[in-house]
Fold:
Amino acid sequence: MKLKQTTLFKRELTPWYDADAVCVILIIAASGIFLFAAAGIKVAAACPMYLDYLWFPCTLAALSLFIAGKVVVRLAGRNRNQSDF
Structure:
């Protein structure tokens, strides 16, 4: 099996779905979903009839925070390790 040769003069191409602009759009969208879920939590907690359904907006809020956090960590790690030649 051949070893992967790395060249110093070529930059690695990132796919379109991992570009900085797409990651920022994903963070904004996840933040909007979190705000929507927070409003759902507020409405479900206010009405005793909807307390059985409180799990859904809580899950939605947790998942959107998880996605936004992972993308922020990815962006921070990539920008920290990026070097200009």
